[in-house]
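Appendix B. Chain record.
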Amino acid sequence: MLGSILIASALISSFQETLYPDWRQTFSVEELIYQEKTDYWDLSIFENKLFGRVLALDGIIQLTEKDEYAYHEMLVHVPLLSHPNPKSVLIVGGGDGGILREVLKHKNLETIIEVEIDPTVIELSKKYFPTVSNGAYENPRAKLVIQDAAKFVKETEETFDVIIVDSNDPEGPAKILFSSEFYGDCKKILNAGGILVNQNGVPFLQKNELRITEENRKPHFKNVTFYVTSVPTYAGGLMALGWASDKKYKVSERKIEERLANVDGRMRYYTPAIHKAAFALPQFMLD
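Structure tokens predicted for this chain:
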């Protein structure tokens, strides 16, 4: 909540994330840049000396300028470079534009649709985090739909090769995006060989997210698993990214390198070797 920013009028000292009841991380606040209660979130943007600009929703860190690439690159390029010939992508959420930025690097994609429930997040991110979207919303290849994504997925007649869900944790408006009903609706609009991925929290501290995702996906997909990335500001260890498909993709590093040659831009986290290694899970996740 907004109370997690420790403020006395203009005297701003720190932001304390309130995600976990027994352990918290604190950011020094050089400047409070923006604060608003939208129709969906308590939104805060502030400047930190180490991480640059930081976006928080409901007291929880969503992204920082310094390390956002470790999340966005892995959520995008792992499924898109696993699929042999993706032509269409649906992005659920992702209002900061980082996912769309990375998706647009794939030159062979013909259909790119992003569905975001809150236009305020998009406009503020474009204004205060311009390097994150990097002009993605002005790209003519991208189609933006302002709508509840669960409703869109249930009603659309479009189909996709890859669905990327960049949502908050399963609370509030994002809770339905972790439900069996939503996963079933996603399955219906995936083409043969289609892949669904999403953010799945920090499993060392958010074990229920892993369990809920696995249980709710298994009725709809034959291959349900996870892979990991490391994002410093998503504190608590490795971050899990959920994977669901009917086909079991086992792509060689050499094949990934060949496909990566057709992707524009330089990566800061993703490599073919990281891609392969990300599916090697620690035992506590397997348990």
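Further analysis of this model is presented in Appendix C.
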